[in-house]
Structure formats: structure tokens, C-alpha cells
Design brief:
- It contains two helices and nine strands.
- The strands form two sheets. A five-stranded antiparallel β-sheet has the order 3-2-1-5-6, covered by helices on one side.
- The radius of gyration is 23 Å and the shape is elongated.
- It has a single domain, classed as minor pseudopilin epsh fold (3-Layer(bab) Sandwich).
- With 174 residues, the chain is an alpha+beta fold.
Length: 174
């Protein structure tokens, strides 16, 4: 008895391909926003870690250490935002450098400070500062690194005002 072959018709395959394509169109932006939110959270944690390292270096070296926004990873860049990258330096020696963040990630400093200077005693000279990273146009994705005047550093989810200010960032990059 002959066996009958089973196969899909071209119409059935086309319909399945359209359904898969429609699902991808819906899912891809959501995945992109989730990735940007994770990158912002990671950047905030990395900056908080680097700021703590800068504070320890200032104490250990008994001299000022600066954490600042930097576009080239070699020196502080006036007017640069933290998402352009940052460095930690003691005098002219760069102790740590981080590259620019992906385009979907923005940053905002509570007082617009492009740098934080730690004195030999570990205090952060100046006022309290909150540096927030977020996915652009997504205020709920903000994560902040906070530095107090006495040099204490902590991080976590951004307050709603900081998240909103970060997400509204319209700076032209690079």
C-alpha cells in the first residue's frame, strides 16, 4: 500500500512566517529596552565601585584623587557627561578608565558636576552628588550612584525625579 506524503503548503508556511515576523516586531524593542536598562544598572554599580576605589586611593596616597567624565579616557573633559565615559586620576596618573556607554544609555548629575574630588581624608569636596544612568526615554530604568560630602558612596534605584531628568536627556552624543 503506497504511503501518502505529508507536507506543508506554501500558504501555510507563509502564514507561519508572517506570525513569527509579527512577534519579532513586537518583541525586539522590548528586549532592546531591557538590555539598555541592564546596562544603566551596571554602569551605576561600576561607577559606585570606582568612586569607592577613588576614595580609598585618596586616603592611601594621602593626596587628592579625581573622578571625572572623560571622552578620551586620558583626561577630564569639560562639558562631558558621565555616559561619555569616566576616569579616576591621581595627579596626571590615570588609575582607571571606562569607555562611553551604548547610545541607548544616558546620564544626569544632580548638580551638573562633571567631576568628584576626594581629599586625602576621603571626603568628597563639594556638595552631595547623585549621578544617574538610565535607558533614554525610560524614567523607570534609572539607577544612581550617590556621593555625600563626607565621602560615603552608595547606589541603587534612582529617585523618580532623578530618573525623569536622566530619561529626558537630549544631549547629542559624540
Amino acid at each position: 500500500m503506497p504511503r501518502r506524503q505529508r507536507a506543508f503548503t506554501l500558504i501555510e508556511l507563509t502564514i507561519v512566517a508572517l506570525i513569527v515576523a509579527a512577534g519579532a516586531v513586537i518583541a525586539v524593542p522590548a528586549v532592546g529596552h531591557a538590555i539598555a536598562a541592564a546596562q544603566a544598572r551596571t554602569a551605576s554599580r561600576t561607577l559606585a565601585h570606582d568612586l569607592a576605589m577613588a576614595r580609598r586611593a585618596a586616603i592611601d596616597r594621602d593626596g587628592p584623587v579625581v573622578a571625572c567624565a572623560s571622552r578620551d579616557g586620558l583626561r577630564c573633559t569639560p562639558g562631558a557627561a558621565w555616559h561619555h565615559g569616566w576616569i579616576i586620576q591621581h595627579g596626571r596618573v590615570v588609575l582607571s578608565a571606562h569607555d562611553a556607554l551604548p547610545r541607548r544609555v544616558a546620564s544626569d548629575a544632580s548638580d551638573g558636576r562633571p567631576q568628584i574630588r576626594f581629599g586625602p581624608g576621603g571626603t568628597a569636596l563639594g556638595t552631595n552628588t547623585t549621578i544617574t544612568f538610565c535607558a533614554r526615554n525610560r524614567p523607570g530604568t534609572g539607577h544612581s550612584a550617590v556621593v555625600s560630602g563626607v565621602g560615603r558612596i552608595h547606589g541603587g534605584p534612582a529617585q523618580s525625579a532623578h530618573g525623569a531628568s536622566c530619561a529626558a536627556s537630549r544631549e547629542i552624543r559624540r
